[in-house]
Amino acid sequence: MNQTDSPNRIEISGKTQPLTVAIVDDDPRVRELLKEEIQDEGHHVLSFESAETFLENSSLESIDLVLLDLMMPGMNGLECLQQLHQQACHVKLPRIVVVSALSDPSKQRQALEAGAESYVIKPDLFERLPTLLNGSTP
């Protein structure tokens, strides 16, 4: 692997292995649009309608990137992020990007302090998606 490659991708014979991306969002339209975009980039997608479903049904060892919605009914994205970090003593966490409709500096700070790699507002998500999939967080 050379230094410009994503640490989450494995290069075999000059080919980059696809990522497994978990989408955690209560909006089915957002999940479907993201799924299509990510699959078009050649990656695998796991889709979850709630933080609870994600925590109960995901194998973190097999996930490279989590796109975690901030505002969901039940457990919100920050609470989910805290739960994930409590599990971190048992498994290596994937990269986690918190996604929100709000451009709220306070929420952004909370997400980053809670261990998110990045905080992206939804209007910018599709533009930033290729960069996020390549392991960069500008």
Automatic annotation (TrEMBL):
PROSITE patterns attached to this UniProt entry: RESPONSE_REGULATORY
Gene Ontology biological process terms from the UniProt entry: regulation of DNA-templated transcription
Domain of life: Bacteria
Keyword Phosphoprotein assigned: yes
Keyword line: DNA-binding, Phosphoprotein, Transcription, Transcription regulation, Two-component regulatory system
Modified residues (4-aspartylphosphate): 69
Cross-referenced Pfam families: Response_reg (PF00072)
GO MF term list: phosphorelay response regulator activity; transcription cis-regulatory region binding
Coiled coil: none
GO cellular component term, pick one: cytosol
Domain called Response regulatory: residue spans: 20-137
KW DNA-binding (keyword) present: yes
Official protein name in the record: Response regulator receiver domain
